[in-house]
Amino acid sequence: MSNLERDPHEIVCTADGEAETELLTGRAVPLGGPRAMSVTRTLPHIRRRMIGAWCFVDSYGPEPATMRVPPHPHTGLQTVSWLVEGEVLHRDSVGSLQAVRPGQLNLMTAGRGISHSEESAEGGTLHGVQLWVALPERHRGVEPAFEHHAELPVLEGPGYRAAVLMGGPSPATAYTPLIGMQVSVDGRAELPVSPGFEHGLLLLDGEVTQLPAGPLLYLPPGRGRIVLEGRGRVLLIGGEPFAEEIVMWWNFLGRTHDEIAAFRKEWMEGPGFGTVTGFDGDPLPAPELPGTRLRPWGRVRPYQAPR
Protein backbone atom coordinates (compact mmCIF):
# COMPACT_ATOMS: atom_id res chain seq x y z
CA MET A 1 0.00 0.00 0.00
CA SER A 2 1.17 3.49 -0.77
CA ASN A 3 1.33 6.52 1.43
CA LEU A 4 -0.86 8.77 -0.74
CA GLU A 5 -0.53 11.92 1.37
CA ARG A 6 0.29 14.87 -0.88
CA ASP A 7 2.43 16.53 1.78
CA PRO A 8 4.14 13.64 3.60
CA HIS A 9 6.36 14.46 6.54
CA GLU A 10 9.82 12.98 6.91
CA ILE A 11 10.48 10.70 9.84
CA VAL A 12 13.91 9.70 11.18
CA CYS A 13 13.98 7.11 13.92
CA THR A 14 16.59 6.52 16.58
CA ALA A 15 16.73 4.35 19.69
CA ASP A 16 16.88 7.33 22.03
CA GLY A 17 14.80 6.30 24.98
CA GLU A 18 11.74 4.31 26.02
CA ALA A 19 8.28 5.26 27.23
CA GLU A 20 5.68 3.73 29.46
CA THR A 21 2.63 1.94 28.10
CA GLU A 22 0.75 4.38 25.87
CA LEU A 23 -2.22 4.52 23.52
CA LEU A 24 -1.35 5.70 20.01
CA THR A 25 -4.50 7.23 18.54
CA GLY A 26 -4.62 7.01 14.75
CA ARG A 27 -5.55 9.59 12.16
CA ALA A 28 -7.71 9.18 9.07
CA VAL A 29 -5.78 9.15 5.77
CA PRO A 30 -7.52 8.94 2.36
CA LEU A 31 -6.00 6.59 -0.21
CA GLY A 32 -6.50 8.71 -3.31
CA GLY A 33 -9.04 11.30 -4.47
CA PRO A 34 -12.44 12.53 -3.23
CA ARG A 35 -14.01 9.03 -3.31
CA ALA A 36 -10.93 7.42 -1.83
CA MET A 37 -10.94 4.58 0.62
CA SER A 38 -10.02 5.83 4.10
CA VAL A 39 -7.53 4.13 6.43
CA THR A 40 -6.54 4.78 10.04
CA ARG A 41 -2.80 5.31 10.50
CA THR A 42 -1.58 4.56 14.03
CA LEU A 43 2.12 4.25 13.19
CA PRO A 44 4.15 6.37 12.73
CA HIS A 45 2.64 8.42 15.53
CA ILE A 46 3.53 11.92 16.64
CA ARG A 47 5.11 10.43 19.78
CA ARG A 48 6.32 7.03 18.67
CA ARG A 49 7.79 6.32 15.26
CA MET A 50 8.46 2.57 15.44
CA ILE A 51 7.75 -0.63 17.38
CA GLY A 52 10.75 -2.84 16.78
CA ALA A 53 11.34 -2.67 13.03
CA TRP A 54 7.62 -2.10 12.38
CA CYS A 55 7.38 1.48 11.11
CA PHE A 56 3.92 1.81 9.53
CA VAL A 57 0.46 0.52 10.46
CA ASP A 58 -2.67 1.30 8.43
CA SER A 59 -5.98 -0.39 9.34
CA TYR A 60 -9.25 -0.28 7.43
CA GLY A 61 -12.80 -1.63 7.56
CA PRO A 62 -14.87 -3.59 7.89
CA GLU A 63 -16.89 -1.66 5.33
CA PRO A 64 -17.75 -1.73 1.62
CA ALA A 65 -14.76 -0.12 -0.06
CA THR A 66 -12.72 -0.24 -3.22
CA MET A 67 -8.95 -0.25 -2.98
CA ARG A 68 -7.23 1.12 -6.05
CA VAL A 69 -3.62 2.09 -5.44
CA PRO A 70 -1.70 2.79 -8.69
CA PRO A 71 1.89 1.61 -9.26
CA HIS A 72 4.20 3.33 -6.78
CA PRO A 73 7.74 2.75 -5.48
CA HIS A 74 9.29 1.54 -2.24
CA THR A 75 12.86 1.32 -0.94
CA GLY A 76 14.47 -0.03 2.21
CA LEU A 77 11.43 -1.79 3.66
CA GLN A 78 9.07 -4.75 3.53
CA THR A 79 5.30 -4.42 3.02
CA VAL A 80 3.05 -6.82 4.92
CA SER A 81 -0.55 -7.28 3.68
CA TRP A 82 -3.01 -8.99 6.03
CA LEU A 83 -6.75 -9.29 5.53
CA VAL A 84 -9.53 -10.13 7.97
CA GLU A 85 -12.17 -9.91 5.22
CA GLY A 86 -12.11 -9.36 1.46
CA GLU A 87 -9.52 -9.86 -1.29
CA VAL A 88 -6.78 -7.62 -2.72
CA LEU A 89 -4.80 -8.19 -5.91
CA HIS A 90 -1.08 -7.40 -5.86
CA ARG A 91 1.09 -6.70 -8.92
CA ASP A 92 4.75 -5.71 -8.83
CA SER A 93 7.78 -4.95 -10.97
CA VAL A 94 9.43 -8.34 -10.37
CA GLY A 95 6.50 -9.97 -12.18
CA SER A 96 4.29 -11.03 -9.26
CA LEU A 97 0.52 -11.30 -9.67
CA GLN A 98 -1.06 -12.55 -6.46
CA ALA A 99 -4.37 -12.15 -4.64
CA VAL A 100 -4.29 -12.17 -0.85
CA ARG A 101 -7.24 -13.43 1.17
CA PRO A 102 -7.99 -13.72 4.90
CA GLY A 103 -5.48 -15.91 6.69
CA GLN A 104 -2.87 -15.52 3.95
CA LEU A 105 0.22 -13.32 3.89
CA ASN A 106 1.59 -11.19 1.07
CA LEU A 107 5.13 -10.03 1.88
CA MET A 108 7.06 -7.76 -0.48
CA THR A 109 10.70 -6.90 0.15
CA ALA A 110 11.54 -3.63 -1.56
CA GLY A 111 15.27 -3.74 -0.85
CA ARG A 112 17.10 -1.45 -3.28
CA GLY A 113 13.83 -0.62 -5.05
CA ILE A 114 10.54 -2.05 -6.30
CA SER A 115 7.17 -0.78 -7.53
CA HIS A 116 3.73 -2.35 -7.08
CA SER A 117 -0.01 -1.76 -7.26
CA GLU A 118 -2.98 -3.00 -5.21
CA GLU A 119 -6.65 -3.18 -6.08
CA SER A 120 -9.86 -4.88 -4.99
CA ALA A 121 -13.24 -5.61 -6.55
CA GLU A 122 -15.65 -2.70 -6.78
CA GLY A 123 -17.72 -2.23 -3.63
CA GLY A 124 -16.67 -5.40 -1.83
CA THR A 125 -16.20 -5.47 1.93
CA LEU A 126 -12.60 -4.89 3.03
CA HIS A 127 -11.13 -5.31 6.50
CA GLY A 128 -7.43 -5.59 7.15
CA VAL A 129 -4.10 -3.99 7.90
CA GLN A 130 -1.10 -2.90 5.87
CA LEU A 131 2.24 -2.74 7.66
CA TRP A 132 5.81 -1.80 6.78
CA VAL A 133 8.98 -3.26 8.29
CA ALA A 134 12.20 -1.25 8.11
CA LEU A 135 15.24 -3.07 6.73
CA PRO A 136 18.50 -2.66 8.66
CA GLU A 137 21.51 -1.07 6.98
CA ARG A 138 23.21 -4.35 6.14
CA HIS A 139 20.14 -5.64 4.28
CA ARG A 140 18.40 -2.58 2.87
CA GLY A 141 20.06 -3.00 -0.53
CA VAL A 142 18.91 -6.59 -1.07
CA GLU A 143 17.32 -7.58 -4.35
CA PRO A 144 13.56 -6.90 -4.47
CA ALA A 145 11.41 -9.98 -3.88
CA PHE A 146 7.86 -11.15 -3.21
CA GLU A 147 6.48 -13.99 -1.07
CA HIS A 148 2.96 -15.37 -0.72
CA HIS A 149 2.23 -17.69 2.19
CA ALA A 150 -1.18 -19.35 1.88
CA GLU A 151 -0.71 -21.25 5.13
CA LEU A 152 0.93 -19.97 8.29
CA PRO A 153 1.93 -21.69 11.53
CA VAL A 154 -0.49 -21.48 14.45
CA LEU A 155 0.35 -21.22 18.14
CA GLU A 156 -2.29 -22.22 20.69
CA GLY A 157 -2.70 -21.94 24.42
CA PRO A 158 -5.47 -21.53 27.00
CA GLY A 159 -7.85 -18.89 25.68
CA TYR A 160 -6.04 -18.06 22.44
CA ARG A 161 -5.12 -19.20 18.95
CA ALA A 162 -2.49 -17.18 17.05
CA ALA A 163 -1.56 -17.20 13.36
CA VAL A 164 2.10 -16.18 13.07
CA LEU A 165 2.68 -13.75 10.20
CA MET A 166 6.36 -13.05 10.76
CA GLY A 167 9.00 -14.11 13.25
CA GLY A 168 9.10 -17.28 15.34
CA PRO A 169 8.01 -20.30 13.28
CA SER A 170 6.75 -18.23 10.33
CA PRO A 171 8.37 -19.04 6.95
CA ALA A 172 8.23 -15.35 5.98
CA THR A 173 11.64 -13.73 5.49
CA ALA A 174 12.60 -11.34 8.30
CA TYR A 175 15.81 -9.33 8.65
CA THR A 176 15.54 -8.29 12.31
CA PRO A 177 14.27 -10.05 15.45
CA LEU A 178 10.51 -9.41 15.39
CA ILE A 179 7.06 -10.94 15.72
CA GLY A 180 3.72 -10.39 14.01
CA MET A 181 0.60 -12.38 14.89
CA GLN A 182 -3.18 -12.32 14.61
CA VAL A 183 -4.42 -13.55 17.99
CA SER A 184 -7.95 -14.89 18.42
CA VAL A 185 -8.88 -14.46 22.10
CA ASP A 186 -11.63 -16.50 23.75
CA GLY A 187 -11.73 -15.91 27.49
CA ARG A 188 -8.53 -15.19 29.40
CA ALA A 189 -5.28 -15.56 27.48
CA GLU A 190 -1.69 -15.25 28.63
CA LEU A 191 0.59 -14.82 25.61
CA PRO A 192 4.27 -15.61 26.15
CA VAL A 193 6.44 -12.87 24.62
CA SER A 194 10.11 -11.96 24.52
CA PRO A 195 11.14 -9.58 27.34
CA GLY A 196 13.62 -7.96 24.96
CA PHE A 197 10.88 -6.91 22.53
CA GLU A 198 8.64 -3.87 22.59
CA HIS A 199 5.10 -4.65 21.43
CA GLY A 200 2.01 -3.10 19.91
CA LEU A 201 -1.58 -4.39 20.11
CA LEU A 202 -4.43 -3.39 17.80
CA LEU A 203 -8.01 -4.64 18.22
CA LEU A 204 -9.30 -5.94 14.88
CA ASP A 205 -12.79 -6.96 16.00
CA GLY A 206 -14.76 -8.13 19.01
CA GLU A 207 -14.21 -6.93 22.57
CA VAL A 208 -11.00 -7.38 24.54
CA THR A 209 -10.91 -5.69 27.93
CA GLN A 210 -7.42 -4.23 27.67
CA LEU A 211 -7.90 -2.74 24.17
CA PRO A 212 -10.18 0.09 23.12
CA ALA A 213 -11.32 0.02 19.50
CA GLY A 214 -9.10 2.20 17.32
CA PRO A 215 -5.80 3.10 19.04
CA LEU A 216 -2.63 1.01 18.95
CA LEU A 217 -1.49 0.08 22.46
CA TYR A 218 2.29 0.34 22.92
CA LEU A 219 4.03 -1.87 25.50
CA PRO A 220 7.72 -1.25 26.33
CA PRO A 221 10.27 -4.06 26.70
CA GLY A 222 10.60 -5.97 29.92
CA ARG A 223 7.57 -8.28 30.09
CA GLY A 224 7.46 -12.03 29.49
CA ARG A 225 3.72 -12.29 28.93
CA ILE A 226 0.75 -10.26 27.74
CA VAL A 227 -2.64 -10.92 29.35
CA LEU A 228 -5.81 -10.39 27.31
CA GLU A 229 -9.43 -11.04 28.29
CA GLY A 230 -12.55 -11.13 26.14
CA ARG A 231 -13.51 -12.42 22.72
CA GLY A 232 -12.07 -10.93 19.58
CA ARG A 233 -9.16 -10.76 17.19
CA VAL A 234 -6.05 -8.76 17.95
CA LEU A 235 -3.02 -7.84 15.86
CA LEU A 236 0.19 -8.17 17.86
CA ILE A 237 3.48 -6.75 16.53
CA GLY A 238 6.81 -6.48 18.26
CA GLY A 239 10.55 -6.62 17.99
CA GLU A 240 13.87 -5.54 19.37
CA PRO A 241 14.05 -1.74 19.50
CA PHE A 242 15.48 -0.62 16.15
CA ALA A 243 18.84 1.00 16.78
CA GLU A 244 19.44 2.74 13.43
CA GLU A 245 18.43 6.16 12.17
CA ILE A 246 15.86 5.97 9.38
CA VAL A 247 14.49 8.76 7.24
CA MET A 248 10.97 7.88 6.07
CA TRP A 249 9.29 10.14 3.52
CA TRP A 250 6.40 9.20 1.24
CA ASN A 251 7.04 5.54 0.25
CA PHE A 252 10.81 5.63 0.71
CA LEU A 253 13.00 4.59 3.61
CA GLY A 254 16.50 5.98 3.47
CA ARG A 255 19.19 7.48 5.65
CA THR A 256 19.69 11.04 4.36
CA HIS A 257 17.85 13.86 2.59
CA ASP A 258 20.02 13.44 -0.49
CA GLU A 259 19.26 9.75 -0.69
CA ILE A 260 15.51 10.38 -0.51
CA ALA A 261 15.81 13.08 -3.18
CA ALA A 262 17.68 10.61 -5.41
CA PHE A 263 14.96 7.98 -4.93
CA ARG A 264 12.29 10.49 -5.89
CA LYS A 265 14.21 11.61 -8.98
CA GLU A 266 14.70 8.02 -10.08
CA TRP A 267 10.99 7.27 -9.71
CA MET A 268 9.96 10.33 -11.67
CA GLU A 269 12.64 10.17 -14.38
CA GLY A 270 14.36 6.81 -14.48
CA PRO A 271 13.71 3.09 -14.93
CA GLY A 272 15.22 1.99 -11.62
CA PHE A 273 11.98 0.80 -10.02
CA GLY A 274 10.90 -1.40 -12.92
CA THR A 275 7.45 -1.62 -14.49
CA VAL A 276 4.17 -2.96 -13.13
CA THR A 277 2.28 -4.65 -15.96
CA GLY A 278 -1.46 -5.24 -16.10
CA PHE A 279 -2.66 -2.26 -14.05
CA ASP A 280 -5.19 -0.13 -15.92
CA GLY A 281 -3.91 3.34 -15.14
CA ASP A 282 -0.87 5.56 -14.79
CA PRO A 283 1.78 5.26 -12.07
CA LEU A 284 1.44 7.45 -9.01
CA PRO A 285 3.53 10.65 -9.20
CA ALA A 286 5.68 11.49 -6.21
CA PRO A 287 4.83 14.55 -4.11
CA GLU A 288 7.16 17.53 -4.16
CA LEU A 289 9.91 17.46 -1.59
CA PRO A 290 9.50 20.00 1.22
CA GLY A 291 11.21 23.37 0.88
CA THR A 292 13.65 22.55 3.67
CA ARG A 293 16.00 19.60 3.99
CA LEU A 294 14.56 16.48 5.58
CA ARG A 295 15.83 16.55 9.14
CA PRO A 296 16.25 13.92 11.85
CA TRP A 297 13.46 13.08 14.26
CA GLY A 298 13.95 10.89 17.30
CA ARG A 299 12.61 7.37 17.33
CA VAL A 300 10.57 8.56 20.29
CA ARG A 301 9.78 12.23 19.91
CA PRO A 302 10.79 14.10 23.10
CA TYR A 303 7.96 15.53 25.16
CA GLN A 304 7.60 19.30 25.00
CA ALA A 305 5.60 20.97 27.73
CA PRO A 306 2.89 23.35 26.44
CA ARG A 307 3.75 27.04 26.74
From TrEMBL:
Span list, region Disordered: 278-307
Pirin N-terminal domain location: 39-133
SUPFAM superfamilies for this protein: RmlC-like cupins
Transmembrane annotation, as ranges: none
Pirin C-terminal domain location: 181-270
Family of this protein: Belongs to the pirin family.
Name listed for the protein in its UniProt record: Pirin family protein
